[in-house]
Write a structure and sequence with these properties.
Blueprint (H helix, E strand, L loop, with lengths): L2 H14 L2 E6 L7 E6 L3 E4 L25 E4 L5 E2 L10 E4 L5 E2 L12 E4 L4 H8 L4 E3 L3 E4 L4 E5 L4 E6 L1 E2 L21 E4 L3 E4 L4 E2 L6 E4 L5 E2 L4 E2 L6 E4 L4 H9 L2 E4 L1 E8 L2 E6 L3 E6 L1 E2 L21 E4 L3 E3 L5 E2 L6 E4 L11 E2 L6 E4 L4 H8 L3 E4 L3 E8 L2 E6 L3 E6 L1 E2 L16 E4 L3 E3 L5 E2 L6 E4 L11 E2 L6 E4 L4 H9 L2 E4 L1 E8 L2 E6 L3 E6 L1 E2 L22 E4 L3 E4 L12 E4 L5 E2 L12 E4 L4 H8 L3 E4 L2
Parallel strand pairs: 3-4, 4-6, 5-7, 6-8, 8-9, 12-14, 13-15, 14-17, 15-18, 16-19, 17-20, 20-21, 24-26, 25-27, 26-29, 28-30, 29-31, 31-32, 35-37, 36-38, 37-40, 39-41, 40-42, 42-43, 46-48, 47-49, 48-50, 49-51, 50-52, 52-53
Antiparallel strand pairs: 1-2, 2-3, 10-11, 11-12, 22-23, 23-24, 33-34, 34-35, 44-45, 45-46
């Protein structure tokens, strides 16, 4: 009988039977080593049938490979051998993510081939390295846009996949379909084809440490990641919306790279996906006077569109910039770096050298008749601690970042003092220095992002009129502001109007504050949803009505089951009948003795505490 006729007979048997074929295990004859059923499922129970084969024709299910639609590999199997699962156009489920997979195990995979296994496992790594489609085994999943989906994996990764825009969750941060899993989310991965990352994609997830945005053109909402880990990091492309959001929110940003290596004893080079080649570290570069082809990044010369030389580099090499016809700028951050005469050779004639006025970069540009421009938007920068750096931007913002304590203030008595309009101190700074803010007449904003940063008594001297210190409620920044008599405000989560001259603001610690003058609108037939902060009802833990608020509308504190304190500073404020619903037995109303607040508390049997 010919092989072709035999294959036809096998297919006929398959159509007539629920089980097409089975293989017997040599170690346990009572348990099939494998079986293939009428649904197209190939089940593999024994490791013996997934050992290495010399060709795809040697596997026992070779005759009906084209009929297989799915493969289930028993979790006890830890190895998939060469040619074992070739020529498949099927879903292969590998529950054991530590399974070792040989070369050629999945050769000639069809367009519908996909491996389903543990996310971020060795099997996942194998799929990525071999260009095979992969899906993680999810603990929960669903849709989050017309063509966007979400999966939550057991390791805490929230995966946004598919294409197009995510659903916009701006008006309700707790409405994302995965919000109930917020406490388990550790990271976010957004696929390249997703074009918009919604507000509050991650909200109130203290264990979430990172977000990876694979698309260079993906637009990320500035409030996409709220109330996350203190050391939250965004991974993305340089110059992308992801980087902009990281800078706005004060998060760490790590760009994607093409390659990296060393080019000096303490000097490294990194080529980023947007064409930027950056040299960092301390000391001189290795001298490559023997020829440009010895440069470790020479092979990428056509990909380089810009170069940056870090402030710690003391001496460049011959051919540092060589035959880079697409490179349009060379930025030199060290004003005293040494330039050999052949630092730039045979490169783009339109390339600009960027550096500080009076620097060796300006001198080299003049000597080579090249265009020179000052570094923008940075006016000045340097170190102000062992691992602490400062930069003054053209917009007047002085940023202090790094880790540890400050030990100097290089801008003190400098010509830059009058240029400073705001100071922003990152979360990694543990201690400020005397005179961090000294007689800065135009500086009205002083932000301290670490709630425990040590602030010496004379860190701020001669504050400008209107200076506001920003920080977390209960932080050292708040205590310091009170100590020196300067206004304090916390980081804002959301804000809006709730009357002609009234504003509501909710802070990241759950405090809701209503300020301004006049009364909230009288609602005749209201619903709770008409209150503008209703979407935060589960997040609010305390409320405060300012002294200028004359009327509190109905439902102003409706369904706020986590709110334990409401303070009313106007002793004559008018309470509409259902202004406050006592949602908790431990709710306390704070107000002045003899005030309408005290009367209202008594009428509603709510605990009242008099303010001093």
């Amino acid at each position: 009988m010919s092989k072709k006729i035999f294959s036809i007979l096998l297919i006929c048997c398959f159509l007539a039977s629920s089980v097409f074929a089975v293989g017997v295990s040599a170690t346990d004859p009572d348990v099939p080593a494998w079986n293939f059923d009428a649904t197209g499922l190939l089940t593999i129970n024994s490791a013996s049938v997934l050992e290495d084969y010399t060709s795809a024709q040697d596997v026992p299910w070779n005759l009906f490979t084209s009929l297989i639609t799915s493969v289930s590999v028993d979790p006890s199997i830890t190895y998939i051998g060469a040619y074992a699962l070739n020529n498949l156009n099927a879903t292969v489920e590998i529950d054991n993510g530590d399974t070792t997979i040989a070369a050629h195990a999945f050769d000639n995979a069809g367009e519908n081939f996909v491996i389903v296994s543990v996310f971020n496992s060795p099997v996942h790594t194998y799929a990525k390295e071999n260009g095979l489609a992969f899906e993680g085994i999810a603990t929960a999943a669903g849709t989050c846009g017309d063509n966007a989906n979400w999966r939550l994996y057991p390791d805490g990764t929230l995966h946004i996949l598919g294409s197009g825009d995510m659903t916009d969750y701006y008006r309700n941060p707790t409405s994302t379909p995965w919000y109930s899993y917020a406490s388990t989310i550790t990271s976010v991965l957004v696929d390249e084809a997703i074009t918009f990352v919604s507000p509050y994609t991650v909200f109130s997830a203290d264990s979430c440490v990172s977000a990876t945005i694979l698309g260079a053109d993906t637009q990320v909402s500035s409030v996409a990641f709220q109330m996350v880990d203190d050391d939250f990091t965004i991974y993305g492309h340089l110059g992308s919306s992801a980087q902009e959001v990281a800078e706005i929110r004060g998060y760490n940003f790590v760009p994607f790279t093409v390659d990296s290596g060393t080019c000096g004893q303490n000097v490294t080079w990194t080529l980023y996906t947007n064409g930027l080649l950056r040299l960092d570290g301390t000391g001189p570069m290795t001298q490559y006077s023997g020829g440009p082809d010895r440069l470790p990044y020479f092979q990428y010369r056509e990909q380089v569109t810009a170069m940056e030389i870090g402030k710690g580099i003391t001496e460049l090499s011959d051919f540092t910039v060589c035959i880079m016809q697409n490179c349009t700028s060379l930025t030199i951050e060290n004003p005293s770096v040494v330039f050999p005469s052949n630092t730039i050779t045979a490169s783009n004639s339109n390339m600009d050298i960027l550096g500080y006025y009076g620097s060796t970069a300006e001198e080299y540009a003049a000597a080579k008749s090249m265009s020179f421009a000052p570094i923008a938007p940075i006016l000045a920068g340097g170190t102000c601690g062992t691992d602490v750096i400062w930069y003054l931007h053209e917009n007047g913002v002085l940023r202090i970042s790094g880790t540890g304590a400050m030990n100097t203030v290089p801008w003190f008595n400098a010509s830059y003092a009058s240029r400073i309009t705001a100071i922003d101190i990152s979360e990694g700074i543990t201690s400020l220095y005397v005179g961090t803010y000294y007689n800065l007449s135009n500086c009205t904003s002083f932000t301290v992002r670490n709630p425990d940063t040590v602030i010496p008594n004379n860190a701020i001297v001669r504050p400008a009129d209107g200076l506001v210190i920003y920080g977390e409620f209960g932080s050292t920044a708040e205590a310091y502001a009170e100590q020196i008599g300067v206004s304090f405000d916390s980081f804002i989560l959301d804000t809006g109007s709730c009357g002609d001259d009234l504003t509501w603001t909710i802070y990241t610690n759950g405090h809701l504050k209503i300020t301004g003058t006049g009364g909230m609108p009288a609602l005749h037939d209201p619903t709770p949803q008409e209150i503008p902060w209703y979407i935060y009802k589960d997040f609010i833990i305390s409320m405060e009505y300012g002294a200028g608020v004359t009327r509190i509308s109905r439902f102003a504190s409706f369904s706020q089951t986590n709110c334990t304190s409401i303070t009313v500073l106007n002793p004559n404020a008018i309470f509409e009948g259902s202004a406050i619903f006592a949602q908790r037995d431990d709710l306390v109303l704070y107000g002045y003795e003899g005030s309408t607040t005290e009367t209202y508390a008594e009428s509603k049997s709510i605990t009242f505490v008099a303010l001093d």
